[in-house]
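Researcher: I've got a protein sequence and the SMILES for magnesium ion. Could you write out the 3D structure of the bound complex as structure tokens? I'd like something to compare against our soaking experiments later this week.
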Amino acid sequence: MQRRFLSTYRALQHENPLGLPRSSTPPQMPRMQRGLPEKRNIREVKKVVAVSSAKGGVGKSTIAVNMALSFAQKGLRSGILDTDIFGPSIPTLMNLEGEPRLSDRSMLVPLANYGVKSMSMGYLVGADAPVVWRGLMVIKALQQLLHEVEWGGLDVLVLDLPPGTGDVQLTITQQVKVDGAVVISTPQDIALRDAIKGVNMFKKVNVPILGMVQNMSTFCCPKCGHRTSIFNPSASESSSLSSSVFESPLTRACTEQGIPFLGDVPLHARICADSDSGKPTVVAEPESERARAFAEIAEGVGKKLKLF
Ligand SMILES: Nc1ncnc2c1ncn2[C@@H]1O[C@H](COP(=O)(O)OP(=O)(O)OP(=O)(O)O)[C@@H](O)[C@H]1O
Ligand SMILES: [Mg+2]
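Model: Sure. Here is the predicted complex with magnesium ion in place.
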């Protein structure tokens, strides 16, 4: 009898853990929240770092997850929050699924793998279910992901942001204290322009820019080891940067604008395969050169945030 009561109770609690409306009626926001919202710390989290770019598909999620895992490998209590409501990637990258439990305080309990705690909309709606919502509902869900997760004490929480400089980015930067932002770009001009928009957005909302990361700029031939700067064939290896970095519009923009350059992740088929298999590079091949690229970025970010 007691067991049946408990399972019914649990089923009821799990039915709609975010308390999100199922009908098309948008949730009612308290009047206060329609004006300037109050900025709060994320509960039980010491430092928050946002991984962002206004451009889609440049490797934000890949770099965010490898960064969170690198922090854990360095002995920090690390977590990752997927703030991409429409296209969450963290369940795949962390090889996690299933509805989160609710704690005694009715907070969502993160799912964990490889020593990193995580929360994502993907756990709540299922792998292939589309989220077909208007902006207000997205913001309501995001607020709950920001404020109603029981992290249980973290040194650092990495926020994996969706592309753009819209509602989600503004809600995050207005509602929680973000200690720093890492902006990702690929080396093409068109991606860099969007990345710079992202940098300027963070400046506008007074979030410190920790630096920029260049992704997929060089291809290293697995047979002969020759490195090619695929988007910029005339590029020369930069003497002012680390010896393995090609000069590109991004590295030049960093120098010109005084933005720290945090590192360069090569284009490598294994990075994509590791991600797809749910075992990101720093866990799957920790000794590889590409894992070291991710670890060095985490090291740079950690130092700037005084995590070590
Ligand atoms: N350095 C890399 N080498 C090879 N593949 C990569 C690399 N970085 C990212 N990828 C692959 O590129 C694709 C896009 O990466 P990812 O999902 O991390 O980008 P994103 O910026 O988070 O995208 P979105 O804007 O949709 O959130 C993925 O398939 C990923 O595995
Ligand atoms: Mg992503």
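Model: The chain has a mean pLDDT of 87. Residues 38-304 form a domain with the Rossmann fold fold (CATH 3.40.50.300).
Researcher: Great, I'll pass this along to the crystallography team.
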